[in-house]
Amino acid sequence: MDPSTPEYWQQVYADEPRPGWDLDGPSPVLAEILEAVAAAGLALGKEIAVPGCGFGHDAAELARRGFTVTAFDFAHPAIEGARTRYGTEVDWREEDWFTTTVGPFDAIFDHTCFVAMDPARRVEYLDSCARHLKPSGFWLAVLFHDTHGRPGPPFQVSAKAIRDLAAPSIEVLHLEPAMQSHPRRAGREFLVIGRKR
Ligand SMILES: C[S@@+](CC[C@H](N)C(=O)[O-])C[C@H]1O[C@@H](n2cnc3c(N)ncnc32)[C@H](O)[C@@H]1O
After folding, report:
1. What's the whole-model pTM score?
2. Domains plus CATH for the chain?
3. Which end of the chain is more exposed for a tag (fewer CB within 10 A), N or C?
4. Do residues 50 and 70 make contact, with C-beta atoms less than 8 angstroms apart?
5. Measured from the CB, is residue 181 less than 6 Å from ligand 1?
6. How far apart are CA 181 and CA 92, in angstroms?
7. What is the pLDDT at residue 151?
8. What average pLDDT does range 60-87 have in this prediction?
9. Do you find a cis peptide bond into 183, omega within 30 degrees of 0?
10. Ligand 1: does its nearest atom lie under 6 Å from the Cβ of 81?
């Protein structure tokens, strides 16, 4: 099956009601990214999108921190699970991120969405992120650089590939190994701050 389709992901949720990627809470790297944004003196704005939100933990954490959050997932069990867990504090959208007409946003928080994409669609995905951002909006991402050689998704990505793929649409301001990863992912994630060109 093709990870570009909602049917693929719906089957994953049907097979694994508690999928292996789900941290049952926000990624610790979300806080680390927001600290890095503040340390760099960048002003994110208020409206944030979370593509491929899964059960919504990161989106809900951003809402708790005062952002106005719109979260997207095209798999029905994901959005249903997010609504059940977190109610209406986030605008949950059961939509395909590539084709939604909602937005544009001040920032995007991407956790396990870029790396869940078919690698052949990465440029298209980054273009869609740029399209959904306001001028100079921010793309904030937590990306696997090491998946222990397992077949994806998730698909790992190198620092060079991130810079090369993003170059036409997004200026990479900050790309570092994440230091506050969940223990299951320690030493395997990048933290990225990019800005729409
Ligand atoms: C690996 S899961 C990660 C979920 C969540 N970000 C997390 O880390 O818990 C990837 C999610 O992206 C969703 N997804 C993949 N492609 C999508 C698309 N084009 N539009 C919306 N959602 C998409 C899938 O349905 C799935 O829920």
Report:
1. 0.97
2. 6-196 (3.40.50.150)
3. N
4. yes
5. no
6. 26
7. 82
8. 98
9. no
10. no
